[in-house]
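Fold this sequence, please.
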Amino acid sequence: PVFFVQRKMAGTVGTLLSYLVSRVDDELANVQPHERQSVGRHLKALQEAHPHVQQRLGSRVIRAEHAADGAPLPTASNTKKIHFIRHGQGFHNAAQQAWRSDPNWDGKSEPYTLDTDPEYKLIDAQLTPKGEAEAIALRPRANRLTPQVMIVSPMRRATQTGLLAFDEHVSRGRLPVVSCELAHEISGKHTCDKRLPIADLKRAFPVVDYSDISSENDPFWGDGLRRETMAELADRAAELMLWLKDRKENHIVVAAHSALLAAVFNSVMTYGTKADQRALRAWFATGEMRTVIVSWHESSV
């Protein structure tokens, strides 16, 4: 009997380990080899922040359901259809890949800190030609959609991606574009994540409405020596989702960033099914768009 119990326990442990490995593989499926370890740490920290964020939300529950692009628009007042986009490849992404591929890389440094980029060459990094192509590749999907507003991070690469993907809508005046500071990438320490002053952004993107942004300069940069924590990012992601809830539109595009989106789906959202959780918690690839039905509820618990 002891032998059979041991075999059963070994089988149970093996099944659990297989599930955990499979789940991690799903979450990191879109991650490049050079960033796999650091992204794994980010996801772990954001998932650990989930109870804290849920406590802050109190009775408010935000639920996500993975959906097809053509899913019907929700009719309930507490539900919206949102297309979440990560920007295409930026020059900072390419710089990091080259930096970490150097056989002499120390395993810690990055090409866009104050000591490695003192001239701010990668400030508010823009899209590479590959990143522009990734954004343009979204157009066939975008052209079949009829969103009511596009929310963009004030950072250039996310704004560029949204405008390129939904060019037909924007150029014909069918899609207002609103910049939201809450959609800013995790900031501090990395020059690529310091946004330009609003005056410069308005000149670069005259079609974008920056009236919701109150700070001329990046409010998250500080002295450039401290990085936002994952817990702080998770709190900001929750604020973003509550801000979206209060908007009148029920069909929205959000163009943002990998860590910010990871915080939305790992720290803020709850899920009705394991399949939705596994699909939506995964790290976004550059130029990826996911369609999600988001609902806001008051819990009775």
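Residues 98 and 104 are 12 Å apart (CA to CA). The mean pLDDT is 93.
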